Design the sequence.
């Protein structure tokens, strides 16, 4: 511990003299010697009703992406999905990155809570558990935003790019689009001239282990679709 950190600890011990000194020291260490963060934790421990509301407001404000990408300019003609998709993917990627940051914070608070419980510091554990819940809520909100952005970018399109979607959401989007493009069963005489291009990727960004591609293939085989691969990460589906 540096001299400055020791001075900060002494100030905290004086300010929170009603708290056990070992508890204050442990929380200071768990907050990586951040006096401000330690002060917040201790205040919540001593005045939970007053401080939890402030914490929730802070978490709610954090749910909004810090860097907003401006929406595409208005035009008299409806833009093609291929033209607006890169912008949507950038927005979704930013949401995912922020969600990952909240996930890391959630994991850190969970580890801290477990350590406090083992040490018998139950009030401190309760604070960390509350922090973890708030961070988890922020993470869920941002991941939902990312999915919604990608889904909207594909409205009324015969082209899908499933990057940045979970396997579940990717299959839901594929199923929805095929239902729109397929002909009614009573009119399926001969092959349809409609095609759906789908970019599945091939696992380049996940260590070479494709997740979406095999799931899409399994869905198409199960539902008897005719398809072929334009390349390793793009499939062309013959609609029914």
Sequence:
């Amino acid at each position: 511990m540096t001299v400055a950190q020791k001075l900060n600890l002494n100030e905290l011990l004086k300010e929170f003299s009603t708290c056990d000194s070992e508890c204050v020291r442990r929380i200071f260490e768990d907050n990586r010697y951040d006096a401000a963060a330690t002060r917040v934790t201790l205040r919540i421990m001593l005045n939970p009703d007053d401080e939890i509301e402030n914490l929730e407001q802070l978490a709610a404000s954090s749910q909004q992406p810090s860097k907003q990408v401006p929406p595409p300019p208005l035009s008299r003609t409806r833009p093609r999905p291929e033209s607006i998709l890169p912008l949507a993917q950038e927005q979704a990627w930013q949401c995912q990155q922020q969600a990952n940051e909240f996930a890391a914070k959630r994991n850190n608070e969970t580890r801290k809570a477990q350590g406090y419980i083992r040490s018998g510091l139950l009030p401190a554990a309760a604070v960390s558990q509350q922090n973890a819940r708030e961070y988890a809520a922020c993470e869920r909100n941002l991941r939902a935003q990312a999915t919604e952005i990608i889904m909207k970018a594909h409205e009324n399109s015969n082209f899908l790019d499933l990057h940045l979607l979970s396997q579940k959401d990717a299959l839901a989007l594929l199923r929805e689009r095929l239902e729109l493009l397929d002909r009614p069963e009573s009119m399926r005489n001969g092959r349809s001239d409609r095609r759906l291009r789908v970019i599945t990727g091939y696992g380049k960004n996940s260590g070479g282990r494709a997740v979406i591609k095999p799931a899409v293939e399994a869905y198409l085989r199960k539902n008897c679709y005719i398809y072929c691969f334009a390349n390793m990460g793009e499939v062309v589906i013959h609609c029914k």
In short: The chain is about 60% helix and 10% strand. Residues 55 and 131 are 8 Å apart (CA to CA). The helical segments are 3-15, 21-30, 35-46, 48-62, 81-119, 122-153, 167-181, 212-222. Residues 74-79 have pLDDT under 50 and may be disordered.
